[in-house]
Specification:
The termini are far apart. By secondary structure, the chain is of the alpha/beta class. The protein is built from eight helices and six strands.
C-alpha cells in the first residue's frame, strides 16, 4: 500500500502551517488518527475555532488581542510619545520580555516584499501614518529585521513619515551576546561598527 489518499485532506491541512512539509504533516495526521481520542480531537477543533473567532487586531496598534484596544495601548503608564514599529505580534512579545521599552507599538503585519507580491498597501502603513500625524508623537523607532525586506520597509517608512519634530530611529544591530567576531558576517560587522555607542 503506497498511497494513503484517505489522509490527504488532513495532511494538506497540516501543510498549511509554516515549516511543516509533507513528511511532518503525514506524521501529524497519523498521530491524530492513531493516538488522539475522539474527545481530544473534538477539544482541539473547538479550541482552534474559538481562537480564530475570538482573537482580532487592536484597532490602534494592530497587535493580536481579544479586545478592541489591547492592554498596551490602554495602559496609561506607557509613554505615549514613542511608537516602536515591528513586523508582527511575536516581535512585540520578544521586546516586552526585555522590559527595556515602555512606549507604544505598531504592528505592520509583514514586510514590503515585491517578489512575494507584498506592497505597502498590504500592510498597516496607512494606519501608522495617521498615528504619526498626532503631534504628541516625538519618536518612531523602526525595528524591522536586517534582511532586504526589512531594510526596504525601514527606508520606505523613513521616507513617508519624515516631518519636522518627529525623530525617526532604527534599533541597533551587531554582534549577538556570546558571539565571536570571527564568525560574524560582513553585514553584521558593518552594522555593529555603525551602531557603536560611547562608553
Amino acid at each position: 500500500m503506497n498511497e494513503i489518499k484517505f489522509l490527504d485532506p488532513l495532511i494538506r491541512s497540516f501543510e498549511k502551517l509554516p515549516g511543516v512539509g509533507q513528511k511532518t504533516a503525514t506524521r501529524y495526521a497519523f498521530q491524530v488518527v492513531e493516538k488522539l481520542s475522539e474527545e481530544d480531537v473534538e477539544e482541539f477543533a473547538r479550541i482552534l475555532l474559538e481562537t480564530k473567532q475570538n482573537i482580532k487586531h487592536c484597532s490602534i496598534c494592530n497587535i493580536l488581542t481579544t479586545t478592541d484596544i489591547c492592554d498596551i495601548c490602554d495602559n496609561e503608564l506607557r509613554e505615549k510619545d514613542k511608537i516602536l514599529v515591528v513586523k508582527d505580534t511575536k516581535d512585540v512579545i520578544s521586546l516586552e520580555k526585555t522590559k527595556q521599552y515602555n512606549g507604544l507599538y505598531h504592528v505592520l503585519g509583514g514586510l514590503i516584499s515585491p517578489l512575494d507580491g507584498v506592497g505597502p498597501d498590504e500592510l498597516a502603513i496607512n494606519e501608522l501614518e495617521n498615528r504619526c500625524k498626532d503631534l504628541n508623537i516625538k519618536e518612531v523607532i523602526i525595528a524591522t529585521s536586517l534582511t532586504p525586506q526589512g531594510e526596504t520597509t525601514a527606508l520606505y517608512l523613513e521616507k513617508i513619515l519624515k516631518r519636522e519634530g518627529l525623530e525617526i530611529t532604527r534599533i541597533g544591530y551587531g554582534i549577538p551576546a556570546g558571539g565571536d567576531i570571527e564568525y560574524a558576517d560582513e553585514l553584521t560587522l558593518r552594522k555593529a561598527l555603525s551602531s557603536r555607542i560611547k562608553l
